[in-house]
# Entry
Amino acid sequence: MNMDFFKYIEQLMELGIRLDLYIDSSDHYFCADLNTQGKSSCVLKREGDKVIAYRRYNRVDEVKDLEHIIELVHGCAHGRSYFSSEWLKVFEDKDLTNPCGSM
# Structure
């Protein structure tokens, strides 16, 4: 079994991200809703040997590492006036611009 999915979950939780874990009823894969609290969501899904990020507008990316997940979620926030304060803190800690404007 691919343990990267669970490694990413642990790393995200260590960053202070609260997420929702569930099993997709249609294909029985483990999923994690990353709780962006914005209009654009990001869900990680363990599919066989891969971890896939599903985002709004049918955007699908194979996850490379934790930094890649953060970049994908950062992209979800652009153009939004609201977003998860937990994610905004991660962006600030990583010296990424605040995609929602000033905090």
